[in-house]
TrEMBL record:
Pfam families the UniProt entry points to: Pyr_redox_2 (PF07992), Pyr_redox_dim (PF02852)
EC numbers for this chain: 1.-.-.-
TM region positions: none
Protein's recorded name: NAD(P)/FAD-dependent oxidoreductase
Species of provenance: Microbispora maris
Alphabetized GO MF terms: oxidoreductase activity
InterPro entries: Class-I_Pyr_Nuc-Dis_Oxidored, FAD/NAD-bd_sf, FAD/NAD-binding_dom, FAD/NAD-linked_Rdtase_dimer_sf, Pyr_nuc-diS_OxRdtase, Pyr_nucl-diS_OxRdtase_dimer
Gene3D superfamilies, per database record: 3.30.390.30, FAD/NAD(P)-binding domain (3.50.50.60)
Keywords: FAD, Flavoprotein, NAD, Oxidoreductase
PANTHER family: DIHYDROLIPOYL DEHYDROGENASE, MITOCHONDRIAL, DISULFIDE OXIDOREDUCTASE
UniProt domain Pyridine nucleotide-disulphide oxidoreductase dimerisation: residue ranges: 356-461
Sequence ranges assigned to domain FAD/NAD(P)-binding in this UniProt record: 4-320
Top class in the EC scheme: oxidoreductase
Amino acid sequence: MDVFDVIVVGAGPAGEVAAGRVAASGLSTVIVENELAGGECSYWACMPSKALLRPVDLAGEVGRVTGLRLGGPIDAAAVLARRDAVVSHYDDAGQARWLDSAGVTLVRGTGRLAGPRRVEVTTADGGTRTLVANHAVLLATGSRPVIPPVAGLAAARPWTNREVTGVRAVPDRIVVIGGGVVACEMAQAMRGLGAREVTMLVRGGELLGRTEPFAGEMVARSLADQGIDIRMHESAEKVERPEPGGEVTVRLASGGTVTADEILVAAGRRAATDDLGLASVGLPESGPIEVDESMRASGVADGWLYAIGDVNGLALLTHMGKYQARVAADVVAARARGEADDRPGMRDRADRAGAPQVVFTDPQVCAVGRTEAQARAEGFDVRVVEYDMEQVAGGYLLGDGYRGKAKAVVDERRRVLLGVTFVAPGAAELLHAATIAVTSEATLDDLWHAVPAYPTVSEVWLRLLEAYGL
């Protein structure tokens, strides 16, 4: 048996941040990973997807400015080469070196709980290594894509986020199942990089259903203008692919078929807790791991087990997993030293306030906090203010085709923001100001004195406050 102060299972962004922070406090730390150190975000999600979307976004930007013209179609081969560089050609040597420099021991293999403070690792050669923690085990195994139980779908070997972000040749025709973030982003990327036919099958009646309704509507209009066929209230009833890698036929629930070269499933994700050995410590064997505000797993005696990132189901976002990792790591270090573990930074507030998120379509969708519907459902005294962002001088200067909308959800009793949504090209950089306002619960009267520079799109803050009546 190998004994360490802290064991981290999963070397994605959350796991790496937690391990590095714990090791920096002086605790001996080991991290277990069965794929690439750096995890989903680095190789198959956030980073490669944004590398694919950036030229599409920039092409849209150029097209909105008078006097500029895009010189022909996007060079897909060059974009894919740049994507390969962004993901380090799927080589995690750099991440492994960083872990070593941070004082973290990397063990390659599949980790599984085998009782209190004990992790059994199955290595690639079939061997077994047992790790024991003096203080804590942190689970950071992330999430996996959901494949709906559609006849023939799994057998057709559909693409998930991994295959589409790692695409070697852009398909001529692609069917996308889903209407969420991955579906919208990758439908736009494939179309922009040269796919002739992109068809989206959306079970519900809107895109991006967890955002304000106008966000999905604006993205749907943009995707349609780019030639993407969006079919609302439509779903796949059966999928047929007679030859591996050959043509795919999707039979629709409403009747008719769609034929394509590839099919992308973007129908959500689930916590990667299967075969994690949770039953050995008295927890349900599947589903998200319930945690308290310090990221400790609920129902585990002595509080030695923690769950951070997607695996706890709070917010399936890389930045939130890293935030939770910082919270948990500081709690673990304090408890190991016998110090108080209740300082303000050791409790999760951000998930309760509402995690910030950006959808990197064109236009971008940026939101933090509660939507209007969520705020009303929770019983707040809500007032809503909206503003068309093209009326801001900074927005007008970005091009004749610039369109955007901002919405603020206000708690009338306290006069603070419960949620903010921006939908506009390049709006992502506006989000952190909104995140600060929502998380800190700054009053509208205080925000009135935060003067935005002219002429920038951030003047939308002033316009929202004026629309409220300040």
